[in-house]
Design a protein that fits this description.
Blueprint (H helix, E strand, L loop, with lengths): L2 H22 L7 E4 L2 E2 H15 L4 H10 L2 H5 L13 H7 L2 H17 L2
Antiparallel strand pairs: 1-2
Helix pairs in contact: 1-6
């Protein structure tokens, strides 16, 4: 994957995630059932924990850091001191950001439809 495609996906999925959360509204954030027994607030906490633990920077800093990488860096774990050799950098970042949003967005959408 090239860097430009990744950054576009990251921005688009984040915008979709934030738009979906805006549909939930504050008054419904604590209702269980959005994903099993989890509320939407539980899902948000789960995703935010992953972003903070795995990336360690806020969203804007992540984009800045990704933009500074070469395409070679973006695809080769050898350019990251502590990254296991079998990992692909862009896949790790995707798994802790826009791919993770995609994992949870369908259950929130289904939950919203049930409550209408």
């Amino acid at each position: 994957m090239d860097k430009a495609t990744f950054i576009e996906g990251l921005r688009n999925e984040r915008a979709g995630w934030e738009a979906l959360l805006a549909q939930v509204g504050k008054e419904r954030m604590l209702e269980p059932g959005a994903a099993g027994a989890w509320s939407v607030k539980d899902i948000i906490a789960h995703i935010m924990w992953g972003e903070r633990e795995m990336i360690g920077v806020c969203y804007a800093q992540l984009l800045e850091a990704i933009q500074a990488l070469s395409d070679e860096d973006f695809n080769d774990s050898h350019h990251f001191r502590y990254m296991p050799e079998e990992w692909t950098p862009w896949q790790i970042i995707a798994g802790c950001s826009f791919r993770h949003y995609r994992d949870h967005m369908p259950s929130i959408r289904a939950w919203l439809q049930q409550k209408v």
